[in-house]
Amino acid sequence: MESSPTIPQLHREDFQSIIDGKQTDLYTLANRRGMVVRFTSFGAKIQQIIVPDRDGVPGDVALGYDSIAAVQTGQTSLGAFVGRYANRIGGARFSLDGEIYQLAQNSGPNCLHGGKKGSRLRVFDVHQLDDARAELRLHYRAGEENFPGNLSSRVIYRLTEDNELMLEYEAVTDAPTVVNFTSHGYFNLAGHGRTDAQTAGDHLLQIRASQFTPIDANSVPTGEYRSVTGTPLDFTRPHRIGERADEPWEQFEQTHGYDHNWILDKPPGEYALAASIYDPLSGRRMEVLTTEPGLQFFGGNGFTGEAPRDIGKGGAVYRHRAGFCLEPQHFPDSPNKPLFPSTVLRPGERFSGKITYRFGIGE
C-alpha cells in the first residue's frame, strides 16, 4: 500500500506562452490553512488542488498537466470553465424567437461545450485580486460558433478558510441568446499519481437527486424526467462509483458508464448541497454545492492512457476512469426542450450562478 504520493511541482514559466495573440500564465490561489489551487488562463483550466488527507498530509486531488504544451495536447475539457454553452445541444441547432441557429457538430451530430472553439480553447483575461481570489473574464462575440448576441462573462475563483473552492459567475448579453456554464474539473481524492488508486472506482458517491434526464442514442436528453429508483443512477444513498458502472443497461450503451444529468432535489436557483463523495483510502471528502438545477456526473470513461493526451503531471498515465467530474449546470439540450429550466438570456437580464467544491475529512 502506498501513502502520501509526491505532489507534482508546477512551474509558472512552463505555462507561459502566446495563444491566439494572448499571453497565457499559471495562477496560484492559497488560503491560510494550506489549501492551494493552481489554474491556467488558457480555458481557465484548474491544474492542481492541494488539500490534506485524514492524517493532515497534503496531496493533489485534481487531474491536470504540467505545461501549457501538455494542456494543449491533453483532454480538451480537463479542468476547464466551460461556456458559452456547456454540454450538448442536440443536432447542433436550436430555435430562438423564431430564428434557427445552426452550430458546429463537434460531438457526433451535436454541439458540445460551446462548439469547436468554446471557452475550453480560449485565453481568459485574469486579474488576481488577492492571495485567495482571481477574476477571470471572457467575451464571446456575436456570431462566434453561430451563437447570437455579444456575451460578456465573468467568473471569480475564490478559496475560503473552510477549504472551499468557490466559482461565482455571471454574464450579460446585447441580444437574446442561450447560456450554460459549468466547471469541468477532474478529481481523484486519493491523491494524484497514487499507484494503489489509479481509478476512482472505490470512492463513495451520493447525489441529492431522485430523477435524471435519460438520453437517446446520440447522448441527448429525450426530454423526459425519469426516476433513478432501480437504476445504476440511484445515488440517493452512497454507492461506490465503480460498483454498477459496467452493468448492462440501455442508458450505458452510448456512454460506457456514467455521463448523465441528474435533476437536483431542490428549488431552481437555490444554493444547496448537490453531491458528496468520500475516498476511504485517504479519508478525504468533497461536497458540491450549487445554484444550478442539474448535475452532470462523468465517470472518466474517456481516458485510455494514450500519449500525449492522457499523460498528466509528473508523467502520470490517466487510464480508464482515472478521475471523475461533478459538473453543476443547466440540463443538456435545454434550448430544444421547453419543459427544461430555461437557458435563454435577454438584454437587461443577468445570468448568474455559483458552484462550490468543499473539501474535508470523514465519511
Describe how the helices and strands are arranged.
Elements: E1 18-19, E2 22-23, E3 26-30, E4 36-40, E5 45-52, E6 58-60, H1 68-73, E7 81-82, E8 88-89, E9 93-96, E10 99-102, E11 111-112, E12 125-130, E13 133-140, E14 151-159, E15 164-173, E16 177-178, E17 182-183, E18 204-207, E19 211-213, E20 226-227, E21 239-240, E22 259-263, E23 272-278, E24 284-290, E25 294-298, E26 325-329, E27 344-345, E28 351-361
Antiparallel strand pairs: 1-2, 3-4, 4-5, 5-6, 7-17, 8-11, 9-10, 12-13, 13-14, 14-15, 15-28, 16-27, 18-21, 18-23, 19-20, 19-22, 22-25, 23-24, 24-28, 25-26
Major sheet: 9 strands, antiparallel
The share of residues in extended strands comes to 35-45%
- What order do the strands of the largest sheet run in, or round the barrel if closed? 12-13-14-15-28-24-23-18-21
The pLDDT mean sits at: 96
CATH topology value: Beta-galactosidase, Chain A, domain 5
The arrangement of helices and strands along the chain is: EEEEEEHEEEEEEEEEEEEEEEEEEEEEE
